[in-house]
Amino acid sequence: MGHERVLLSEGSSLTAREFVAVLGARGIDVEVASPTRRPLASFSRWCRAVRPVPAPGDDPVGYLRALDALLAAGRCTALLATHEQAWLLAAGERYLPHARGRLAVAGAGAFERVQSKISFAALCDELGIPQPAWHEVGCEADLDRVGYPVWVKAAYSTAGRGVRRAATRAEAVSAWRALGGAGTAGPAGASDDSGRDGPGGARAGATGRTPERAPVKVMVQAPAAGAYRQVAALFDRGRLIAAACSQRIGPGAGGSAAARLSVADPGAVDAVVRLGRELEWHGGLTCDYFSDGDGRRLFIECNPRTTEPGNAAAAGVDLPSLTIALATGGPLPRAPLIARAGVRTRSTMALALGAAETRGTRRAVVGALGRALGGRGPLRGSREVLTPVLRDPPGLVPALAAVGAVLVRPGAVADLAGDAVGAYAITPATIARLNGGPA
Fold it and tell me: Is the dihedral of CA 361, 364, 370, 375 positive or negative?
């Protein structure tokens, strides 16, 4: 009898690659839906096929119909949303008749309350979930509402590409304009769908002038002190199935957690349970927050999906396998599973990319590699979860390619990240096109 096989909604993200590693270790094979021929997740002995699909951001209906055709073929028992396609799958349910009994995502209305950073902040206020002071920016004067320094955030963005830190008012104005808050072209992955009409954003008109876009929604938020953490949860229509908390012990690109330590944080779990119940959430839900070590937490963002599940799996909570059971009606635990504390994991390639982005030197990249591979400092005793090459040798190929690129030119990390984000980003314009409205 062959192995169970599932379909991933994309294969370019670090999350997709960790899904492959976690599932493969459990004897589950994957197919990857991808607009690119060789996405990151394809470099694995557990990836059985890359299925070509339209880019979801460019052709959402075509993408959904292609997914449904793949499910209709009957090779895969479940469809797993590994990145922002979760939002698209929820909004485009009508195009996925063969996903019934194979997909676990919340309703489109629930996504609308957490996909936007502004909507999520408003929901936290409504539920009494602590967060840094924030304010939506409607005009330049609103940038001063929470003082300086401040984070200026596009309401819709991914991979840290729509977030800028400003220490002064001048920097805040510059960030607001760069993100599109003043009606200019915004960042890749932001809500203005920038860059799709050419290098300069919208095409120039007959006069040769580039027209301004409608302003992108932007917020300002005060900084938060403490350790950067995530709480990842899985819900069955509002009931908590499993949860895992982790703390960043090594930075990746965009400020992500390229190395993690699993931690016990019941207060964070309680907060995400309140969210899940309020939204009657179905599927994965991940929240970012800061903890000061004295029990005080400030939540800053919500990812309405499961992100980078390697640490949780190493700590005893296999979110990808539980999601398959949730989607297909398989057995689920009666009491919530909570990941054990004290487990250290790393993504060596992501650590190298993070060093290239933040330090911008070959020496920094080499140092990050040495600490990871030598298990030094906070990485001592950590296990590789992104490209575990001893168990999955093909994973060495993209790791060497990415590390080699940033060793030759540290600035190449921006191109690598941009290519990956472009393959999976979903914007409000994407959802508008799906629903037949103006993009």
Answer: negative
Q: Helix (H, G, I), strand (E, B), or coil: what is residue 3?
A: coil
Phi-psi label, residue 123: left if phi above 0, alpha if psi -120 to 50, beta otherwise: alpha
Cis peptide before 211 (omega within 30 of 0): no
Instruction: Tell me the residue ranges of DSSP E strands in 122-167.
Output: 134-137, 150-154, 163-166
For the segment 184-204, what is each residue's pLDDT rounded down to a tens digit? Answer: 544 444 333 333 333 233 333
Indicate whether this model's pTM tops 0.85.
Answer: yes
Of 280, 279, 266, 346, nearest to 311 by C-alpha is 346
What value, to the nearest 5°, has the Cα angle with vertex 362 and ends 356 and 366? 90
Q: Which of 137, 218, 128 is nearest to 179 (CA)?
A: 218
Local structure of 421: helix, strand or coil: helix
| Cα distance between residue 196 and residue 199, in whole Å | 8
Determine the Cα–Cα distance for residues 132 and 149; give it in Å rounded to an integer: 12
User: Under 8 Å CB-to-CB from 85, ≥6 apart: which residues?
Assistant: 9, 10, 56, 63, 424, 426
pLDDT digits (tens, 9 = 90+) for 347-359: 999 999 999 998 8
| C-alpha–C-alpha distance, residues 320 and 312, integer Å | 10
Residues in the chain: 439
